[in-house]
Specification:
The complex is a heterodimer of chains A (256) and B (328). Chain A is built from twelve helices and no strands. Chain A is an all-alpha fold and 256 residues long. Chain A starts with a helix and ends with a helix. Chain B has helices at residues 40-47, 69-74, 91-101, 106-119, 135-147, 165-178, 191-197, 215-222, 239-244, 272-281, 296-311, 315-320, and strands at 2-11, 14-24, 29-33, 55-60, 63-64, 76-79, 153-157, 183-188, 200-205, 208-213, 226-232, 249-254, 261-265, 286-292. The chains are: A mainly alpha (256), B alpha/beta (328).
Chain lengths: 256, 328
């Protein structure tokens, strides 16, 4: 068994014996359930209104009415929830001095960082898969285009990956789990707000650059069903950058 | 097997260790002795590649700790000050994880696991969560972790802390049994422990090595005079003065608690016979007469307090913290 797989296995084991994963999953799925319920009810009332206006059953687009708003809200929920999954990764190792064991074992720092990230990413993907129940149930009672839903899931998986790597970095920076969680909230919200700053700057090179840095527009296209390489490149670069920074931070601790 | 050459570690302005040089031969057991904060842990962390030295070089099994850390790490079993255990895992799960990150294959891992569980008597707690174990058990799990991949070099930071007297003896026996086949460095501030298990002692104080030798030679080297302890049943008031007048006696002190007199005589002279005859012929009643040998403890206090005279620091405090020898 390679060290990376050993670390993934250990992370999964640790996660599932701690209450955090259960609490986070329960709250996350509950919020997602309520969000999609509200979106479906809203779609229903719009359908009734349209029927009264036009007198005939309209063609309702579930992709526009239900999935898109739900996935947007879900992205915000992820921003608040995922730092709770990553906060302990390095902070706890350092607090409990098990960090010394990892750093004196013949494993590379990159293997530790990647192993920890993949462990928590697997948990996140599991959670995301569970939210797939909503489109699945809806597909029995209505018809909609699956493709934008699938690209939205691709977008959520990439977005979640970026959030988690940011969390890994934040956790590597401190011994305190609360500081780690708060730091990743802060970083993520700031990057999110860059989208708004981009709009203020308007149609200038600076404006485009700032909007490009925010994950909003990249996520937006994927939710609309548009898979553009430049968005995939954005996420890939963001992920690698965050993991690289986390690697440097962990490595630098030896020099202090 | 282990060579440290002029290693210095500074944390900002604070110098933790300065120009520390020593070597450990293959199969040797070496003790690092020193008050808290002397730099024992820092030295060990450098040898285990946990952090690099600011200056100087350290080599383990022929590999440089800075240039080839993975090769060094493969050959080292390390028990840090705090046992590095994951509370949420069971003992078996934890050791399996450690074995995997140390790169053991499935068969070696199973063998290693059985071996350390047996040697550290962890059989009863094998499937219990580490969170529920006592301090002593955690310490033993930490040791098991260091021994799991049967490394040629063991670096143990205070291996017997938190253990009960019976376990301390067992762990010392274990370390002694490793001598010869393994190279061991252990740190301790319990002096009898160093005498009991180690062939060589390095005394480190304020980041510098102040002495390095076998425990016996260290005490011999620092002995300036022979001491005799004497207890008399009915001592006359001027006994100390009378004894001082005897030929060959340099000085006489009154030992504080036991009521004994300490007679200091020139190095290499045994005056027990003369003193006994003197006391008996005067009819004072001789109760006890014995030579006092200088213990490692005296050596240690001598060396660390000597430093205090030079540096004028708070060394007495540190020296006082040295634990009393435990009666085992």
């Amino acid at each position: 068994m390679t060290p990376v797989r050993a670390i993934i296995a250990k992370e999964l084991r640790s996660a599932f014996v701690s209450p955090i994963v259960y609490v986070v999953s329960a709250v996350f799925l509950l919020i997602f359930g309520v969000l999609s319920y509200l979106a479906v009810v809203n779609a229903g009332s719009q359908a009734v209104r349209l029927m009264q206006l036009q007198g005939a059953a309209p063609q309702l687009n579930l992709n526009d009415l239900v999935f898109r708003p739900t996935f947007y809200s879900l992205a915000i929920v992820l921003m608040l929830v995922l730092p709770l999954l990553t906060m302990r990764l390095f902070a706890e190792e350092r607090k409990l001095k098990t960090f010394e064991l990892l750093m004196t074992s013949p494993v590379g720092v990159h293997e530790i960082v990647i192993g920890k990230f993949l462990g928590v990413y697997a948990i996140f993907l599991g959670l995301l898969a569970l939210t797939g129940l909503v489109p699945l149930v809806l597909s029995f009672y209505s018809s909609f285009d699956w493709n934008p839903v699938l690209t939205s899931y691709l977008g959520l998986a990439l977005l979640g990956g970026l959030f988690l790597t940011t969390g890994v970095l934040a956790s590597a920076l401190t011994e305190n789990q609360i500081v780690a969680a708060f730091l990743s909230f802060g970083l993520l919200i700031l990057v999110w707000l860059l989208g708004g700053v981009g709009v203020v700057l308007g149609d200038t090179p600076a404006g485009h650059l700032v909007s490009y840095l925010s994950f909003i527009e990249h996520f937006d296209r994927l939710v609309r069903g548009l898979v553009d390489t430049k968005d995939l490149v954005y996420y890939a670069c963001g992920l690698v950058l965050m993991l690289f920074l986390a690697h440097r931070v962990v490595e630098s601790q030896r020099w202090k | 097997m282990i060579e440290a050459h002029n290693i210095t570690k500074r944390y900002g302005d604070l110098t933790a260790i300065e120009r520390v040089t020593f070597t450990v031969a293959k199969g040797e057991v070496l003790a690092f002795l020193g008050p808290n904060g002397a730099g024992k842990t820092t030295t060990m962390r450098i040898l285990t590649c946990f952090m690099p030295a600011t200056e100087g070089t350290a080599r383990v099994a022929g590999f440089d700790c800075f240039e080839q850390p993975v090769e060094v790490k493969r050959r080292i079993g390390y028990l840090p000050e705090t046992p590095p255990v994951y509370q949420e895992l069971t003992v078996a799960e934890y050791l399996t994880f450690v074995g995997r990150i140390k790169g053991l294959g499935a068969a070696d891992l199973r063998r290693g696991l059985d071996r350390v569980v047996e040697r550290l008597s962890l059989g009863d707690v094998r499937h219990r969560l580490i969170a529920n174990l006592s301090r002593g058990y955690r310490q033993r799990v930490g040791l098991a972790q260091a021994l799991l991949h049967d490394p040629p070099v063991l670096i143990l930071d205070e291996p017997t802390v938190g253990l009960d007297p019976k376990q301390i003896i067992e762990i010392r026996e274990l370390i002694k049994s490793l001598a010869g086949s393994h190279t061991v460095i252990l740190s301790t501030h319990i002096l009898p422990e160093a005498t009991a298990v180690c062939q060589r002692v390095v005394i480190i104080n304020r980041g510098r090595i102040v002495a390095e030798d076998t425990p016996e030679r260290l005490s011999a080297r620092l002995r300036r005079s022979e001491k005799i302890s004497l207890i008399v049943k009915q001592p006359p008031a001027d006994l100390a003065a009378r004894l001082r007048a005897l030929p060959g006696i340099l000085n006489v002190f009154e030992a504080t608690d036991s009521g004994a007199l300490l007679l200091e005589c020139a190095l290499g002279r045994d005056l027990r016979d003369e003193v006994a005859r003197y006391v008996v012929t005067n009819g004072w009643g001789l109760l006890e007469l014995k030579t006092v040998s200088m213990t490692l403890e005296d050596v240690f206090l001598h060396l660390t307090q000597h430093e205090e005279g030079l540096a004028g620091g708070s060394q007495t405090q540190a020296a006082v913290q040295i634990e009393e020898p435990r009666n085992l």
